[in-house]
Specification:
The complex is a heterodimer of chains A (323) and B (247). Chain A is an alpha/beta fold. Helix content of chain A is 37%, strand content 21%. A 6-stranded mixed sheet of chain A has the order 6-7-8-3-9-10, with helices on both faces. Chain A has a 4-stranded antiparallel sheet with strand order 2-1-4-5, with helices on one face. In chain A, helix 5 packs across helix 7. By secondary structure, chain B is mainly alpha-helical. Chain B is built from 10 helices and no strands. Chain B has helices at residues 9-17, 33-75, 80-92, 95-106, 112-136, 140-148, 153-187, 195-204, 208-236, 238-246. The longest helix of chain B has 43 residues, at 33-75. Chain B starts with 8 loop residues before the first helix and ends with a helix. Chains A and B meet through helix 2, helix 4 and helix 7 of A and helix 6, helix 7 and helix 10 of B.
């Protein structure tokens, strides 16, 4: 658990706060996304967790203990760190890069080697093929996978991720996001995740902290609640006029109550793994008012139909959750 | 060139070694191979090694001074301009003047010491500059990632910054050693010994074999030293070569 308690940061020689009286709590195993326009102090806030930046006022507690209770370097070895520019060591092989923190904390070489292979497998880079390469020999997407593997190396309970999928094309980013969410289901890290992209925040976050210029917390809530009930004009404009559609992207077709599937041969077929947003797009695209829901993957018998009306009803319902 | 004038090579040799011969009559060809063979062990090899010693010691001392100064200048930026101005001043002094100044103003005895001092002074600018440039070239995100993962400042310097700066630092060493070998030849003028002796003697005595030998060997020495550093850099930074290949 990470607790921000009235944390402020003002740089010397400036009278404007970068982060202003920030208080919120990240529960164990949650991804908390800090999102906001540039200059909102989201990266500064994240970097105060592992004391790359020291707050001017307030304190940050990790599992109830002040993060100043040990030296900065000791603290940072216990917290995973992944950044947009990745910052792999160009002069070290992939295996050596991933092994950075295990080497710092003195794991023996067998344990480290096993862990490196395990992590490369986890992020989808076959160890035999990638272990001995240098970073420059990898594509941007592969380097970001290595960056994540390196952050996970010593199995830290907490991870800080600053736009960790920012430096790749949208398709690769989408894939990396999905893979990471999949990994997170198993590893259940407590994560502070920084992005400027509200869509990424909605997709990745269990909770979202929306910050505005000057480092003021505008709203801290689940993605569903932020989309359904933005607290202020700032939040609703930051979230965007398509927030209804964004909410639909949080719900999967298989989580809906479906209508019976009789006499629906001419309807577009919709995989139940799609989000409501994508399903809506398919139905409208086919010129229909409902679609036939079929199980994800090949074949399987239809489980029912989904109508535009059902989606419409749901988007008026402020209590919607992603089930 | 070269009428033999009936003199046997042995006679010429004796003539040369008596060290007062001048003039046309001792020439048996532009290069007197016999002389080279006979004096190889006694004169040429020692001169060659004296030159290597002179340059190696000077470069080693210059590195020991420059690397810490360069690291400091990269950290504390205010140091860099004065360092560049002072070492740049040394670098601009013509080599004959430098040797003379050291002898007459600083008051060194004729010999190796003032030569080494001069050679060290000449190397500082390029070495310090390349240490600073090399450290500056380390990507900031690499340093940030290193710090974020809990490396101490010292670990970041030795495990990240210096290894990544190495190709640029070695490039500085290459320029320095080639410059040193060139200037060290002139050091013979103040008694530093080495291949410069062969060249100066050869010129004084109008004996091409001597100065050509000195010139060729000092050129080979410079080329060899340069290649040595290229090779060392390749061995020490395999990643740089591979990344060049990848892009």
């Amino acid at each position: 658990m990470i607790e921000f308690k009235n944390v402020s940061k003002t740089y010397a020689g400036s009278d404007r706060a970068v982060v202003n009286d920030l208080s919120f709590t990240v529960a164990d195993g949650d991804i908390c996304v800090l999102v906001g326009p540039s200059g909102c102090g989201k990266t500064t806030s994240m970097r105060m967790v592992n004391r790359l930046i020291e707050p001017t006022n307030g304190e940050i507690l990790i599992d109830g203990e002040k993060n100043t209770s040990m030296s900065g370097t000791q603290l940072r070895r216990k917290i995973g760190y992944a950044i947009q520019q990745i910052g792999l060591f160009p002069h070290r092989t992939i295996a050596h890069n991933v092994a950075t923190v295990p080497n710092l904390v003195g794991w023996d070489s067998d344990r480290t080697a096993r862990r490196v292979d395990e992590l490369l497998d986890l992020v989808g880079l076959p160890p035999d093929q990638y272990r001995d390469r240098y970073p420059a020999e990898l594509s941007g997407g592969q380097q970001q996978r290595v960056g994540v593997a390196r952050a996970l190396a010593a199995d830290p309970p907490i991870m800080l991720m600053d736009e960790p999928f920012g430096a790749v094309d949208p398709i690769t980013r989408d894939r990396l996001q999905n893979e990471f969410l999949h990994i997170q289901e198993d590893i259940k890290k407590t994560i502070v995740f920084v992005t400027h992209d509200i869509d990424e925040a909605i997709k990745m976050g269990d909770k979202i902290a929306i910050l505005r210029e000057g480092g003021v917390l505008a709203q801290y809530d689940t993605p569903e609640n932020i989309l359904a009930n933005p607290d202020s004009d700032f939040v609703s404009s930051f979230v965007g006029t398509d927030r209804v559609l964004k909410r639909l992207s949080l719900v999967l077709v298989r989580d809906m109550d479906l209508d019976p599937a009789n006499g629906s041969d001419n309807l577009p077929r919709i995989s139940d793994g799609l989000t409501l947003k994508d399903a809506l797009s398919e139905i409208i695209g086919a010129g229909a008012d409902r679609g036939l829901v079929v199980p994800d993957g090949n074949g399987g018998s239809p489980s029912g139909t989904l109508s535009i009306d059902a989606i419409k009803t749901l988007s008026h319902d402020a209590e919607v959750t992603s089930g | 060139m070269g009428s033999a004038l009936g003199a046997t090579p042995i006679a010429i040799l004796a003539f040369l070694q008596s060290e007062f011969a001048t003039g046309e009559q001792k020439k048996v060809g532009f290069i007197d191979w016999e002389w080279i063979r006979d004096n190889f062990r006694e004169d040429i090899v020692p001169a060659f090694f004296q030159s290597i010693y002179l340059c190696a010691v000077s470069l080693a001392i210059a590195i020991v001074i420059s690397v810490p100064l360069g690291i400091l200048a990269a950290r504390y930026r205010a140091l860099y301009p004065p360092l560049t101005i002072i070492t740049g001043f040394f670098y601009t002094i013509p080599s004959f003047s430098m040797f003379t100044i050291l002898l007459f103003i600083v008051g060194f005895e004729v010999g190796r010491t003032p030569a080494i001092v001069a050679l060290v002074l000449y190397s500082l600018l390029v070495l310090i500059r390349n240490v600073v440039t090399g450290l500056d070239s380390v990507p900031p995100e690499t340093k940030d990632a290193a710090r974020g993962m809990g490396l101490t400042d010292r670990q970041i310097l030795f495990r990240v910054e210096l290894p990544l700066a190495l190709p640029v630092i070695v490039a500085g060493m290459r320029i320095a050693i080639v410059t040193l070998i060139g200037i060290s030849v002139i050091g013979a003028y103040i008694g530093a010994g080495g291949l410069g002796d062969l060249i100066f003697d050869g010129i004084t005595r109008d004996f091409p074999t001597l100065y050509v030998t000195g010139a060729v060997l000092s050129t080979l020495l410079a080329i060899g030293a340069d290649l040595l550093f290229v090779g060392a850099e390749r061995i020490m930074s395999p990643w740089a070569r591979r990344s060049r290949g990848a892009t």
